[in-house]
């Protein structure tokens, strides 16, 4: 959602105006009614669709296997096959890449696929970095083939200093360092689970249970 709002609310423009002490009211575009194509519609896609539907967006999910129903419980239209995927790419305002990282999907999003998208489309990558050709993406952004992109995963991480993506302007690219799962909540409970596992074979059962519930309760109090 943040990636979509970043472009439609022009976050970079507001930040630049503030830095210049400039009052700059401008027209913005609503998300309601915009079309979202999720390529690789699995568990993450379903969780995303739940949020997108709440904003009144039209969501289509493309899967590798044939769906058993046309529309799922979130109102997402389910499709599969190359022809349907190409149609979704051509029609979507936002294309969300959540493909798994396999040999079959390696650099799947390339110059050819970017050229299928609307010039006003925004590409969002939150799956696996190897599924996109980053040089082709940089060219598509520089040449105006697509409106913008939000990328959180990369083929090589950390992203090399020589990557052309670093030089793309903020109004065309939102680049984040694969950190969507690094929240206080997730880090705390990962640590708690590690401590629990580490001591599992050394503590009496009653003490182990007490320590587990202490971590659990303490986590909810501070988060």
From TrEMBL:
Annotated GO MF terms: NAD binding; oxidoreductase activity
Pfam families (UniProt xref): 2-Hacid_dh_C
SUPFAM superfamilies reported for this sequence: NAD(P)-binding Rossmann-fold domains
D-isomer specific 2-hydroxyacid dehydrogenase NAD-binding domain boundaries: 3-180
Entry superkingdom: Eukaryota
PANTHER family for the chain: 2-HACID_DH_C DOMAIN-CONTAINING PROTEIN, D-ISOMER SPECIFIC 2-HYDROXYACID DEHYDROGENASE NAD-BINDING DOMAIN-CONTAINING PROTEIN
Protein name: D-isomer specific 2-hydroxyacid dehydrogenase-like protein
Species per Swiss-Prot/TrEMBL record: Trypanosoma cruzi
